[in-house]
Amino acid sequence: MKNKSNYLFHFLFSPFRGLGGPLLTLILLSPFRGLEGLAQTSITPDVLSTLEKAQTNTAADRALRNVISSTSINKVALDMQHSSAATDTYFSLETKNTGISDQQSSGRCWLFTGLNVLRHQAMKKLGTNNFFFSQVYCFFYDQLEKSNLFLQGIIDTRKKDIDDREVAWLFQNPLSDGGTYTGVADLVSKYGVVPQEVMAETFVSNSTSEFNSHIKRKLRECGIQLREKAAKGASEKQLEAEKVEMMKTIYRMLSMAYGEPVKSFTWAPKDASGKIIGEAKTYTPMEFYKMVSDGTDLNADYVMLMNDPSREYNKVYEIEYDRHVYDGHNWLYLNLDIEEIKPLCIASIKDSCQMYFSCDVGKQMNRATGLLDIKNYDYGSLFGTEFGMNKKQRIQSHDSGSSHAMTLMAVDLDHNERPTKWKVENSWGASNGFAGHLIMTDEWFNEYMFRVVVNKKYLNEEQKKLMQQKPIKLPAWDPMFMDE
Fold it and tell me: Is the pLDDT of residue 12 over 80?
């Protein structure tokens, strides 16, 4: 206290000599003054000793250490008192569906989700509840288009140094099996769709990683060759012609792994028992898409909404290179407060329209029950600390982002018409979660929901005007906008 009084006296009564004296005094009075003796750039023996002495070694500590080190963290952190209560599976508003799809060991959740939304419309049109689209048909063209997107991107950036951030990103990400809603919209609008039995899944389409590693290596090789030819003076047209030759190899590799897409097929709808219930007709994939979609334009009629509190609300953002087709659409979305998004989702469900929805599914997920609840796991009590970041901070620190797409199909409203929980159709098989679905509390929805696609007709006039503003373009490597 004596020293503190002397510093205070010096600050109040010493002659003014610039900011040095008072500023130094304020630093000395700082509540962090006691930490100065421990400040080190490296872990020195003194620092290590301090860390070691701060640890306790009670019987409870030893028992907890044994448990944590020998089993799954989620098993230990599971709040038994909370999880023992039966999950409420009633929903006041729900769009019914039949049949659960399974993406298996692939990253195609975006494609399964987009086609499941379209499937809901198609079953109404076809008069059957026994129908699935062929995911592998669309996926073949997705991988073909992404390969072209990468190689054309290499041509477009040929004058940039290979260490340039954009060029480096292209070579790091030549191809993936992940994607977004815009990919679904562009692919089906360009290539159409076919029923599942017309082009069946393959082993590789259900387990994509091994094959992807080979095709990515080939694409990188092609990319390097294009840059070398450009450096030797090849024109843009010459490089594009060379790219077409390279794409012949890519097409062959894809057809060997996924099968070659059909050009036309004869098909009739069936009921749950497999009995034909309609007239067999011959279609091209585009004719079939136009028939089952009933004129819906997946690009023009729908809008992607985002809840990203790390960026300004009521602004439109566009993500560069976040598209599947070179001549297609970059991912474009309107960033809104979460409480503005919920009424649009509710309106869609009331109108029996399912939605493309994506979130950070791994956070606080109980796989056994299919419940997403911020109270599922008590990690803080387990480790004797707090995990206190809010949604904005988790995004900024790369701790949270959209990781999985599903089909939003139900909401439960209280007597004030406020949502209490939501339900999504997943693509992990019927035995996963709650009969192939996940149920999320509204609190979880607030924290970990990021994207939803709704028909523009549900937007109010102000929101429609916001969509007309010039988009703010963000780089492809932004952490919030990696493929789902």
Answer: no
More confident residue, 83 or 290: 290
| d(C-alpha 375, C-alpha 372), whole Å | 9
**Model confidence at 278, in pLDDT bands (50, 70, 90)?**
confident
Measured in whole angstroms, the distance separating CA 24 from the mean position of its chain's CA atoms is 49
For the chain, the domain total comes to: 3
Note if 214 is an active site residue.
no
Given 97, 109, 212, 329, the catalytic residue = 109
148 is catalytic: no
Pair (252, 308) in one structural domain: no
**46 assigned to some structural domain:** no
Catalytic residue among 120, 324, 329, 404: 404
- Examine the residue annotation and report whether 57 is marked as an active-site residue of this protein: no
Residue 283: give its domain's CATH number: 3.90.70.10
Whether pTM > 0.70 for this model: the answer is yes
Domain shared by 322 and 463, yes or no: yes
Q: 191 and 141 in one domain?
A: yes
Q: What is the pLDDT of residues 85-108, one digit of tens each?
A: 678 899 999 998 778 889 998 999
For residue 369, give its domain range.
Answer: 302-481
User: DSSP class of residue 37?
Assistant: G
Domain end, chosen from 231, 264, 293, is at 293
Q: What is the DSSP letter of 428?
A: B
**Average pLDDT of span 254-267:** 96
Q: Is residue 43 part of a domain?
A: no
Q: Do residues 452 and 341 lie in contact, with contact meaning Cβ atoms separated by under 8 Å?
A: yes
Tokens of 358: 């994506």
459: exposed, middle or buried (Cβ count in 10 Å: 0-12, 13-18, 19+): buried
Which residue in 173, 307, 376, 426 is the catalytic one?
426
Which pLDDT value is given to residue 30? 54
pLDDT band at 174 (very low <50, low <70, confident <90, very high): very high
Average pLDDT over residues 416-423: 96
Count of Cβ atoms closer than 10 Å to residue 217 Cβ: 11
Element (H, E) at 224: helix 209-231
